[in-house]
Amino acid sequence: MQKNIKNLFKDRLGREVLSLLERISQVADQCRMPVFAVGGFVRDLLLNVSNKDIDIAVEGDGILFASRLAEEFGGQVTAHENFGTAVVLFPDGNRIDVAMTRLEYYAHPAALPTVKQSSTIKSDLYRRDFTVNSLAVKLNEEDAFCLLDFLNGERDIKNKKIDVLHDSSFIEDPCRLFRAIRFEQRYDFRIGRETEVLMKAAINKRLVDSLSGTRLLNEMILILKESHPLKYVLRMKELGLLQFVSPQMIDIQALKNIPAVLSWAESISLPEEPEIWYVYFLSLLYSLDEESFMQTAERLQMQARLKKSLIRDRETCKESLKLFEKDKDWSPETIYNQLSGFSVEAVVYFLAVASTDRANQYANIYFTQYHKQSELSLTGDDLVQMGIKPGPVFQSVFKALREAHVKGAIESREEEVAWVKKQFLE
Q: How far is residue 359's CA from residue 353's CA, in Å, rounded to a whole number?
């Protein structure tokens, strides 16, 4: 007997989401297509966790249905014909993912799936990664708001358990190894005993090696973007997954200090919010020697911009940490010169590694005093008007000006002009 959860929708979803689902239902009836909410949206509804990402499955032409939705809402459609999927972007910036009900076949381990349309939602749900993600809710027709649970997903949600649907799950897609940890840690669930056995077998067979670098990096970033990523990293280490990013990635001590540093950072005015996932990623890669880092960057197929940022932050942190251990008393100029070359993320990591009140004091002084003091009134155009030719000398002038501000030698625009004339034009 199917379970109707219409009251759950009313109790746990806001009026805006309910109205949206009702309009989707109306369009589905007009198209004469059975339509379902699926996956994470249903899982989080049962868990009473907010989730604005709505995934829709259609027994029929998913792209046609997405087009009709876009017409109804005045949105835009981006279709992916090969997979029978589409994204509907609404004028308010929200989006809905639409897909035809389908079967998936994997030509070999870690291959992208070959998609074939399925006539029923049931067969579509059997291709999902975990039982907790195999639930659907009918949105239209006479049985609207009925929960479809063919694989005991609701039971596993209640028992806080992560289980795969079949023994070949991790062989088909090794990314599921990372997703299992992500869902386990996010919801404080546990990976089922048999599923963990299958995970360890896939890890021992090194199936992750067959993933592309882009997919592996993406899974790492998704994990590090979760709240409290340290516990996710510790779980990956426990199961032996970090080795596939780099066999040398074994020193994670500094990661344990990052949450405290982030809490400290909230108490002062940083020039920008740190990208927390990047702080953890930098920490994971920091202990690698140069050769190992370059090999890891190549394995993960890092884009040039990310690779360049990591190289820069690794170098600045190493140089400053050496000086920090050598020189126990930094002058105002040293504090400024060292920390001004850091990204905000690198500062957080530097403090996590240094792990001393002295380092925190230097960072506090820099951000509350010197960073603001070093803001200049003069621009490159001003220097040209003063008779200085554009070139590398500009960098020297601005660097010297900032240091003079930090020392308290100058404060106003007029004093900047006089100082530049005296130092560079006389």
A: 10
